[in-house]
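Invent a record, attention on tokens:
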Amino acid sequence: MSGPEEQPLGIDELLERVRTGYRRAEAQEAHDEAQVGEALLVDIRYAALRERDGLIPGALVIERNELEWRLDPQGSHKIPEATGHDLRIVVICNEGYASSLAAASLHQLGLHRATDLIGGFQAWKAAGLPVTR
């Protein structure tokens, strides 16, 4: 006799759970940290959104499907900026949903200071922060 089957998590519950593991960043906070070199902004939006809405000056563009490979400090495909597990990374998607899952994935790699931007690129733009075309 088997026990009751566990109900699968829905995406809303999954997001709520992963977000309890870290403090998310507000747009102005992320901007200020990046300006003084305390945070690495990483834009994971796909090309069509970047072309439509523009870019955040100084943010690294890393496609979502390459994120872990590029930011793992121990990885063979890491970027030069992936200097250690203490790196403060702020992941930015379009509206702040995919970035939460991405930040949780980075935590699994030991990047314990990774976070994401509340509201994503759209919140950055709405806050009047710099955007280049």
Observations:
- The helical segments are 11-19, 27-35, 47-53, 67-71, 98-108, 120-126.
- The chain has a mean pLDDT of 96.
- The chain is about 35% helix and 10% strand.
- The two ends are 62 Å apart (CA to CA).
